[in-house]
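Propose amino acids for all 230 sites.
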């Protein structure tokens, strides 16, 4: 169903290494990825969305908003990242995809309303916004792209990620919606639930797409793109 309002989507990977505090020393590979992600996020914000929806996996029926926060202590960094506004006592803890999405919005200087949702809640969240809406779709490709990758090498990993990259480059929402969730899970492609949700939510829409990055510098597929739907 064609969305009733302008929607702009930034597809972003979710490695904690995106944060300089985690990555440590500068890396040419990460510099390129960060530049691509920044460009995609700025494309979303340039359309002045009424709300930015950060969609990521690892949450079950929970929405995140002002007062919620996450931290990077699991990665050896004593850093807390608010999802929106100040952290409040008793606020919910946000998972890594939403933490990175919040950090990217802060990095871009965006102080407007934001909402964190799970893939299964994206369609409902989009339908509740009357005006232009932005989406940060957080998720990695396969973590089995090389021998040193977290899941070790699988020959099916590169073709799987290439099919996703093709869908992102051509604005093919149907191809995203049709991604095989079982194969995605086998290949440790964390972005599949999010990509499927975006594809389903934008089915039938006319999409203007740009693929900004497609690579696996650390054995994990990182895909960066932005879509404009009118």
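Proposal:
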């Amino acid at each position: 169903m064609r969305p009733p309002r302008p929607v702009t989507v930034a597809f972003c990977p979710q490695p904690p290494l995106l944060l300089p505090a985690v990555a440590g020393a500068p890396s040419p590979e990460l510099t390129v990825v960060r530049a691509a992600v920044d460009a995609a996020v700025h494309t979303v914000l340039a359309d002045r969305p009424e709300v930015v929806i950060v969609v990521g996996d690892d949450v079950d029926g929970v929405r995140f908003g002002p007062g919620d926060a996450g931290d990077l202590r699991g990665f050896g960094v004593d850093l807390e990242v608010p999802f929106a506004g100040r952290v409040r006592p008793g606020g919910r803890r946000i998972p890594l995809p939403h933490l990175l999405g919040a950090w990217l919005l802060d990095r871009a200087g965006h102080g407007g309303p934001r909402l964190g949702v799970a893939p299964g809640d994206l369609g409902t969240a989009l339908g509740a916004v009357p005006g232009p809406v932005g989406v940060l779709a957080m998720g990695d490709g396969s973590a089995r792209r090389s021998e040193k990758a977290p899941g070790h090498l699988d020959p099916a990993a590169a073709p799987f990620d290439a099919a996703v990259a093709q869908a992102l480059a051509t604005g093919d929402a149907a191809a995203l919606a049709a991604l095989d969730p079982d194969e995605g899970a086998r290949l440790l492609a964390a972005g599949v639930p999010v990509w499927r949700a975006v594809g389903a939510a934008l089915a039938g829409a006319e999409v203007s797409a740009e693929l900004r990055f497609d690579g696996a510098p650390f054995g994990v597929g990182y895909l960066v793109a932005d879509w404009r739907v009118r």
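The CA atoms of residues 208 and 228 lie 5 Å apart. Residues 7-229 form a domain with the Protocatechuate 4,5-dioxygenase; Chain B fold (CATH 3.40.830.10).
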